[in-house]
Amino acid sequence: MALDPQIAAVVQQFSGLAQPDFTRLQASQYRRYSDNLMPLLPGAAMHEVRELRVAGAAGELDARLYRPLDRQDLPLLVFFHGGGFVVGNLDTHDNLCRSLAEQARAVVVSVAYRLAPESPYPAAPLDCYQATCWLVEQAARLGYDASRLALAGDSAGANLAIAVSRQAAASKGPVIRYQCLFYPVTDGRCDTASYRLFADGYLLSAEMMGWFWQQYLERPEQAEEALASPLRADDLHGLPPTRVFTAEYDPLRDEGEAFAQRLSEAGVCTRLLRCEGMIHGFISMAAFVEGGAKALAQAAADLRTALS
Questions:
Q1: pLDDT computed for residue 17 by the predictor
Q2: Is the pTM of this model over 0.90?
Q3: Which long-range contacts (CB under 8 A, 24 or more apart) does 27-33 make?
Q4: Domain coordinates in residue numbering, the chain
């Protein structure tokens, strides 16, 4: 279908902005630019929002806990933010985490894993797994039911959710009931048809993704490793039931849908929803894009069912 009118207005609003020169761009410069592109809209009111320090693979990490109700028996949803493994933080995804907590009726903990290039691959996936294990261990102290554990993430964060699920399957724990993946990064090849169709003009560009991968990996051949590119994994058996959301006008569309297909072939209960007329990042636009709000409501309903 055609580009959604509300999404088209967003694309038009950003079309006049000067684009970074990715041949010379430094990560610190891009963080100052990108982390302030989207307005930090007020989110849903929470019973509790708590700043945490959680265990990472090489020291403590910042995290933020969202409790929507005054209850200690809610399920736990661990969230990993997107941003190409290079940008993004707890604040850029605060609104989304609040919405997930409110609508899914779960305690959400957003984890600020180490970013590249200062901490290149595999720092982020190792951080996210260690943080998830720590949060399960601390369930009684922090007040939630870690036996009902799910993961979620958007873009690079969805890649990291997959990495946590794969490490948990290999290590026999923790038990993850469900994972929700919004337009996941699954392959460092960046050579699908959707990369060519939507290379430019839809906020996330092929050039930008290439730059992200260059920052993330110390060596190009690391893109062959399943922890970085889960679509390359030989075996995807044993992963939790999964919902994959993709966007029609997104360079990452095809690799996300290919990953969903691979999961199904491995016997993993998988549901895929291509959101027509949408672009990469549309879930974070739910406050002013109806298509984003509908997809977010669907994701939350799925999480409620999976964690009931």
A1: 79
A2: yes
A3: 27/86, 27/87, 27/115, 27/116, 27/117, 27/118, 27/215, 30/86, 30/87, 31/86, 31/87
A4: 5-306
Residues present in the chain in total: 308
Instruction: Pick the catalytic residue from 250, 254, 284, 302.
Output: 250
Q: Is 16 exposed, middle or buried (0-12, 13-18, 19+ CB in 10 A)?
A: exposed
* Nearest alpha carbon to residue 109 among 86, 87, 128, 82: 128
Report, as an integer, the average pLDDT of 16-43: 84
Write the pLDDT tens digit of every residue in 218-245.
Answer: 999 999 999 999 999 999 999 999 999 9
DSSP secondary structure string, 119-184? Answer: S-TTHHHHHHHHHHHHHHHTHHHHTSEEEEEEEEEETHHHHHHHHHHHHHHHHT-S---EEEEES-
- Supply the CATH classification number for the domain 5-306: 3.40.50.1820
Question: In the predicted model, is pLDDT for residue 178 greater than 80?
Answer: yes
Catalytic hit among 99, 110, 119, 155 = 155
155: annotated active-site residue? yes
